């Protein structure tokens, strides 16, 4: 590069920096002005006196929004009916799911080829008698008997005598076993000289442990009687070295009084970085601890998140048991009741995630809390360099849609090293041809390139006629004409909302372990059109969009609309992928002419070992299917059914296993993570 080129590039960057600095200064001034006005309002005596009335008003507004979110009166009635059934179903996940005498006898008599000793670690501290008895009895009633309960007690002088006496009572009971048969006590107990907090006390529990597998259990919670049985079954069948299950919070002393049931995805690293969704009941092979600690005191409050991140990094076979097997008691002072009861947990969680990211080679990143919850994080990775991005937009007619799309890219985007490839495929109208001329000769001529799919007779039938529309072929042709390191496939009926949408997609697409990255798309009324794709969701049992039609400000199931996460697929309406990975899997399969080609493409990436990621921080409007209509009737419906059958056949093995990021306890007939209430408890499936 010559000195003149360097000087030109420098001046260009200088002008860009000055413009951005000016925009920042304007926003800061506006922010200060708004903050001044807000403070003046909040300090007004009338405002303070109106607090009760405002709280009531906001409650009414929230209820109104919840009703509006259902879309219609019919939707509201359906939701109420579902909630009634779901509440009833909660009982089926509680004591009703406990084993019958017949099931208990069958599980107790099961002889596994490998029956590991599982040491369950429980740190004690001033544990209330009811909580302590419930906890111990839930272990004693396990249908798998080769366990060890390791208790390290840091209770103060006021409580130590009661706690130790109760433990001794159960030690004697277990040793006697009703017939004096047990030779060794399965309950190990240690009095600590002082309370060392959750981390320190649990580490002392580990000193008592003799098992090949270690389980982590809280002193105020309850285990399902079958949890160890299902875990050992998975250890034998899947060689599991790290296991976890679904869980619920409950209030009071009755596990049937559930507050929230949490049905989790299988292991998903991006979910885990953003949110400790694994949590309970973690059981892992002891060898995973070699050369490292169990709990690190510097992460007290989120010591489990730190431990899970470290040990799952080492594990070879992480297995999720999709059954509700852990009951997390909610009471005053517990994390289950309120994260604000332990505010230090928030900073500890950020520290644990940061430590994990540094171990994986990330140096420049930012971790911030989201609107969903203080410990549900947005992770902003560094965008390395400024690689060229090619935005490929197939188009036929629809000049107004295309113009809105391109204008929004140019006017909104702060990333500037990109090109737009418009793939013209069959337009005849004068309006679109006029717009193409404007693009070729106007101010965007250096950014936008229009390529004709049928230019010089290319892609035509032998007799010169045009073949049936093939979206996949159009996309592949557009990509072949691109020059960028990264590809964005973008529908012409989209409109950019987020100014840094390309950076939000690129920070994931640049990762070596990531394939496709998808954005959060809204309908014009701000309801959700796309937030990730779930396999087998919908009537055709092919794939469907999660949270479809939900209000834009909805937090999603367990906050899922507020953090980047791993999914099986993302929509091709806005999808970024590196050109190298696009070519590696052969681009879009032209056997899927119109539908399911994007899902097929993502599954090809997944088949190569890449992750597909949905990020809610890149947002666009999507005027869905304006360019070609919906697949609901006539020839479109026939074509969609044929492509669905092709998809179900091609990916039968994958579909039969189910979507790893969508719990099998959820309904495949609804997109809102509703419980499959017809099936009740997954424990019924033996």
TrEMBL record:
GO molecular function: glycosyltransferase activity
Gene3D superfamilies, per the entry: Spore Coat Polysaccharide Biosynthesis Protein SpsA, Chain A (3.90.550.10)
Residues in coiled coil: 10-44
Record Pfam families: Glyco_tranf_2_3, Glycos_transf_2
Record domain Glycosyltransferase 2-like: where: 119-289
Keywords: Coiled coil, Transferase
Top-level taxon in the UniProt lineage: Bacteria
SUPFAM superfamilies hit by this protein: Nucleotide-diphospho-sugar transferases (SSF53448)
Record's protein name: Glycosyltransferase, GT2 family
Organism in which the protein naturally occurs: Butyrivibrio proteoclasticus
């Amino acid at each position: 590069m010559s000195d003149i080129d360097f000087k030109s590039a420098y001046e260009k960057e200088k002008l860009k920096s000055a413009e951005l600095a000016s925009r920042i200064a304007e926003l800061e001034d506006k922010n200060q002005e708004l903050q001044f006005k807000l403070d003046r309002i909040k300090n007004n005596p009338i405002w303070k006196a109106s607090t009760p009335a405002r709280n009531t008003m906001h409650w009414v507004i929230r209820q109104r929004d919840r009703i509006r979110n259902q879309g219609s009166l019919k939707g509201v009635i359906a939701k109420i009916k579902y909630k009634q059934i779901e509440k009833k179903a909660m009982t089926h996940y509680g004591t009703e799911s406990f084993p019958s005498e017949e099931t208990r006898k069958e599980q107790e008599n099961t002889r596994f080829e490998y029956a590991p000793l599982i040491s369950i670690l429980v740190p004690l501290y001033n544990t209330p008698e009811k909580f302590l008895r419930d906890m111990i009895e839930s272990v004693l009633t396990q249908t798998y008997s080769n366990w060890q309960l390791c208790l390290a007690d840091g209770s103060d002088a006021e409580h130590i005598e009661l706690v130790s006496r109760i433990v001794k009572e159960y030690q004697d009971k277990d040793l006697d076993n009703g017939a004096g048969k047990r030779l060794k006590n399965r309950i190990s107990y240690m009095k600590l000289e002082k309370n060392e907090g959750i981390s320190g006390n649990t580490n002392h529990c580990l000193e008592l442990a003799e098992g090949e597998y270690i389980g982590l259990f809280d002193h105020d919670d309850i285990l399902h009687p079958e949890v160890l049985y299902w875990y050992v079954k998975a250890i034998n069948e899947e060689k599991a070295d790290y296991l976890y299950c679904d869980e619920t919070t409950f209030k009071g002393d009755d596990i049937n009084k559930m507050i929230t049931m949490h049905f989790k995805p299988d292991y998903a690293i991006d979910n885990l970085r953003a949110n400790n969704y694994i949590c309970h009941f973690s059981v892992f092979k002891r060898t995973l601890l070699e050369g490292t600690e169990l709990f690190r005191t510097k992460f007290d409050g989120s010591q489990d998140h730190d431990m899970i991140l470290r040990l799952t990094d080492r594990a070879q076979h992480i297995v999720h048991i999709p059954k509700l097997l852990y009951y997390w008691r909610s009471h005053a002072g517990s994390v289950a009741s309120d994260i604000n009861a332990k505010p230090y947990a928030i900073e500890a969680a950020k520290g644990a995630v940061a430590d994990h990211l540094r171990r994986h080679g990330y140096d420049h990143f930012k971790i911030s809390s989201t609107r969903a919850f203080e410990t549900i994080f947005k992770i902003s990775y560094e965008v390395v360099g400024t690689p060229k991005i090619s935005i490929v937009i197939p188009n036929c007619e629809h000049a107004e849609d295309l113009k809105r799309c391109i204008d929004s890219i140019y006017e909104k985007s702060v990333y500037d090293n990109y090109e737009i490839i418009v793939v013209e495929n069959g337009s005849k109208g004068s309006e679109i041809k006029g717009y193409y001329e404007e693009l070729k000769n106007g101010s965007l001529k250096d950014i936008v390139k229009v390529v004709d799919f049928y230019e010089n007779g290319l892609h035509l039938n032998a007799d010169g006629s045009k073949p049936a529309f093939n979206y996949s072929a159009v996309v592949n042709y557009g990509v072949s004409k691109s020059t960028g390191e990264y590809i964005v496939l973008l529908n012409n009926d989209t409109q950019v909302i987020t100014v840094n949408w390309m950076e939000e997609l690129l920070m994931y697409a640049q990762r070596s372990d990531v394939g496709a990255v998808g954005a959060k798309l809204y309908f014009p009324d701000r309801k959700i059109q796309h937030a990730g794709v779930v396999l087998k969701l919908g009537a055709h049992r092919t794939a469907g969009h999660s949270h479809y039609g939900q209000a834009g400000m909805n937090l999603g199931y367990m906050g899922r609309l507020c953090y980047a996460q791993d999914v099986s697929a993302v929509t091709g309406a806005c999808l970024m992928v590196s050109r190298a990975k696009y070519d590696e899997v052969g681009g879009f399969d032209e056997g899927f002419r119109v539908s399911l080609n994007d899902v097929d493409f993502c599954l090809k990436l997944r088949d190569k070992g890449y992750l597909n990621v949905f990020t809610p921080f890149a947002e666009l409007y999507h005027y869905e299917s304006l360019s070609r209509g919906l697949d609901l009737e006539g020839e479109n419906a026939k074509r969609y059914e044929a492509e669905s059958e092709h998809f179900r056949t091609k990916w039968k093995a994958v579909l039969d296993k189910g979507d790893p990021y969508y719990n099998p306890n959820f309904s495949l007939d609804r997109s809102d993570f509703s419980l499959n209430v017809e099936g009740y408890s997954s424990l019924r499936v033996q």
